[in-house]
Design brief:
By secondary structure, this protein is mainly β. It has four helices and 34 strands. Strand 4 and strand 5 form a beta hairpin.
Length: 497
């Protein structure tokens, strides 16, 4: 057993004895890091430089421990990462794997998603080191470094969901690239969806439905959160040869090839299997290469956003929030800024039972805003409630907006406190898309909720299939303070009846 002990106790001096990072050290994206830090501090969990830690996945364990799957093919067990003064002890449980971008545990056994397979890993003799490696499923092919496989944690029924990236984002060079699979605890594998370009994390949303995140690229105008609908086509037609393979047949008829250039809302009407993006993250304004996501299950220990999705971004080294809802049978929802200034490109995030959000990743492979090579960090709620947009939900004639603190009735009731814009993207085989078909909806009336925590916006000019920018520049709380972040982005796939 190889145990790493951190030497960094002497540097743990700033916040509650820990290192708190500032926007000035790492640059800014939204320009709100100083205000964010009043409510959520960034604390570095010290790890030895010799470990060369490149986190690819996390899995919480009993007794406050954390398992880390790494890009370098290890599974590490960390004790002490969630202590008030973290002096972690790290044990290497397994090595020799390949890009562990999914990790879960079931009945004391690890399930690791590698580029080429889902592996069940067991410590048979109880010495803290892996002894048995069982290939549960390797139905997909592999032949290019960019063919990443992302796995969920183990779901309550013992299954793992795996989403497969295409060969270099554009090509289908190996079987089932661009497909998603469900693999049960004994390795039985079934196809879920196709058309995936370059996925990031995969897992359940607030309601337990399986989703995944995908970065901007061919047939993807911007980064997005997508519902893994059974039999769904997620948008990239180069994977169509997989429909002719034994597991691909499970998805039913091959979709009609979408037209290009077009609009996603138009092609969804032509191609029944095509699934619209549930939440669009406007490029660079809300991330540039989104990766992991997790639901806040801390029941308020992480602040006022319990039950919401937290989504990480690799390129911009930040964390965002998202909420989803189902309207007329289609998933849609909103995204919100949350916390910038993290230390490297984030590939994985996870919540601890006591309300910390752990983050980790790498700066190897693509440019990232964070300038640290090997870093493990956590976000801590300071106990001071931020004045934020809590949730945006769709109405038949506008939006219902909830806030984290009571609003000033005068500013909240004024229509000119709000500003809207809508747009969509070109659905095309080219890389990404500009924002097109812009409109300017207007707020015709505002009704403040009786409890002062929300407003109902009556909006003229809603556009189905568009992302709606909602700006709240004029809204103040009862102390006269402005919102920490004054914008939210709602993807309006369907206007409620």
């Amino acid at each position: 057993m190889h145990t790493f002990r951190s030497r960094a106790a002497a540097s743990l001096l700033a916040v509650a004895g820990c290192v708190s990072l500032s926007a000035q050290e790492l640059g800014a994206s939204w320009g709100t890091a100083d205000r964010e830090a009043e409510h959520y501090r960034i604390v570095e969990v010290p790890v030895p430089e010799s470990l060369a830690l490149e986190c690819g996945s996390f899995c919480p364990l009993s007794n406050g421990r954390l398992a880390i799957g790494t890009r370098r093919g290890e599974i590490l067990i960390v004790s002490g990462a969630f202590d008030a003064l973290p002096r972690p002890e790290i044990q290497r449980f397994a090595e020799g794997l390949d890009e562990v971008l999914g990790l879960g545990v079931h009945n004391g056994v690890f399930y690791a998603t590698q580029q080429t397979e889902l592996t069940r890993i067991t410590d048979v003799d109880g010495d803290g080191r892996a002894d048995r490696f069982e290939n549960l499923s390797d139905v997909w092919g592999f032949g290019h470094y960019h063919e990443f496989a992302w796995g969920s944690g183990v779901q309550p029924d013992g299954s793992v969901y795996v989403v497969l990236g295409l060969s270099d984002s554009y090509n289908y060079k190996a079987p089932y690239r661009g497909f998603a699979f469900r693999i049960d605890a004994e390795g039985s594998t079934s196809a879920v969806a196709s058309g995936i370009r370059s996925a990031g994390g995969v897992g359940p949303n607030e309601s337990g439905e399986m989703f995944y995140v995908e970065s901007q690229g061919p047939w993807n105008g911007s980064c997005s959160l997508k519902h893994l609908q059974q039999g769904g086509f997620m948008g990239h037609p180069v994977c169509f040869p997989g429909y002719d393979l034994p597991l691909g047949v499970q998805l039913g008829p091959k979709p009609v090839k979408p037209n290009t250039p077009s609009r996603l809302v138009t092609e969804c009407a032509r191609v029944p299997q095509l699934v619209p993006y549930a939440v669009v993250f406007p490029y660079r304004r809300m991330g540039q290469s989104i990766t992991g996501f997790r639901v806040d299950r801390s029941r308020g220990r992480f602040g006022p956003f319990a039950g919401q999705l937290f989504v990480s971004d690799y390129s911009l080294s930040l964390v965002m929030r998202a909420t989803t809802e189902q309207v007329r049978g289609v998933w849609q929802g909103a995204c919100y800024p949350f916390r910038e200034g993290l230390g490297n490109g984030i590939l994985a995030i996870e919540f601890s039972d006591d309300g910390y959000l752990i983050t980790g990743g790498t700066n190897r492979g693509w440019p990232v805003r964070g300038n640290k090579r090997f870093v493990l960090e956590r976000l801590e709620y300071t106990g001071r409630v931020p004045f934020e947009v809590h949730t945006v939900s769709a109405l038949h004639d506008g939006f219902h907006v909830r806030f984290t603190l009571p609003v000033d009735a005068t500013t909240a009731a004024a229509p000119d406190s709000y500003r809207l814009r809508s747009f969509t993207h070109i659905y095309r085989q080219g890389y990404g898309s500009p924002e097109v078909d812009e409109t300017v909806p207007t707020v015709a009336a505002v009704a403040v909720d009786d409890d002062g925590l929300g407003v109902r916006l009556t909006v003229q000019g809603l556009v189905e299939g568009h992302v709606h920018d909602l700006h709240f520049d004029g809204v103040r709380d009862t102390n006269g303070a402005s919102l920490v972040h004054t914008v939210a982005y709602y993807t309006l796939n369907r206007i409620p009846e």
